[in-house]
Design a protein that fits this description.
about 260 residues, alpha+beta, Sortase, Chain: A, 8-stranded mixed β-barrel, two-stranded antiparallel ribbon, 3 helices, about 20% helix
Length: about 260
């Protein structure tokens, strides 16, 4: 082949081979940091959205299985004075009294129709992340009242992780039903108001929230969670007042069946 048959870039000269990119320490470090940044973003997306959706669905499924188990169990007859000498102490129309649960012991299911027809999370004793909030869902502050009892039934749940059962707590409206289901039946509270307090604002857990010197005569529920959703600078506190108890033999209360297909 003659010289004229060679590809040329300029008359009389051959094309020079392309320069190879020089590999430098800074270049490798930059690539590693870029990859790490992408992985961090993926992890954050998992923690804040994808993981919450998956874990939340798992918690709801577990709660549904528990309520189905209660529904299929043989009905327990109500105590009578002959069978229980202390039964009259409850008074007419008083709901069954529940014992304080042990740490991590499941005793109920929380249902809030405003937050969706499938909103249901198990309730267990204690509010530690490791034992109750992370693996179970919603926790009960020890030594506060139990559902239907005079005083303050105080519970806690995550707002931005581990299924985020209280993610939409601030969206509740006055009068919304907050229902605690147990093997005996349903304890219904009506939502009243929301406030924000400092993380050390423990007076919301008193028998009469924020009123240390007042004797409790009402039956209230206090639901606590972090605020803002992905922060910890405040606590969002939702309050409700006891409305009624529905025995299991009577079927679910209207708030859980209205609008059902």
């Amino acid at each position: 082949m003659s010289t004229a048959d060679q590809p040329l870039t300029r008359r009389g000269s051959r094309r020079r081979p392309p320069r190879r990119r020089r590999v430098t320490v800074l270049g490798v470090l930059g690539d590693l940091l870029l990859t790490a940044g992408v992985l961090v973003l993926l992890f954050v997306a998992w923690q804040l959205w994808i993981g919450d959706a998956i874990i939340g669905a798992k918690f709801k499924s577990e709660a549904d299985s528990l309520t189905q188990e209660w529904a299929s169990a043989p009905a327990t007859p109500a105590p009578t004075p002959d069978a229980d000498p202390d039964a009259d102490a409850l008074g007419p129309g008083e709901p069954p009294a529940l014992a304080q649960p042990g740490n991590g012991e499941v005793f109920g299911v929380l249902r809030i129709p405003r937050l969706g027809p499938d909103y249901q999370f198990k309730l267990a004793g204690g509010v530690s992340a490791a034992v109750t909030l992370d693996p179970i869902g919603i926790g009960h502050y020890p030594d506060t009242a139990m559902p239907g009892q005079t005083g303050n039934f105080a519970i806690a749940g995550h707002r931005g992780s581990h299924g985020a059962p209280f993610a939409d707590l601030p969206s509740l409206r006055v009068g919304d039903s907050v229902v605690v289901e147990t093997p005996d039946g349903w304890y219904t509270y009506g939502f009243r108001n929301l406030e924000y307090v400092r993380p050390d604002g423990v007076q919301v857990l008193l028998p009469v929230p924020q009123a240390p010197e007042v004797l409790a005569t009402d039956k209230v529920i206090t639901m606590t969670t972090c605020s803002p959703r992905y922060g910890f600078s405040e606590r969002a506190i939702a309050y409700g007042v006891f409305d009624s108890f529905t025995p299991r033999a009577d079927g679910p209360p209207a708030s859980l069946t209205e609008g059902a297909a």
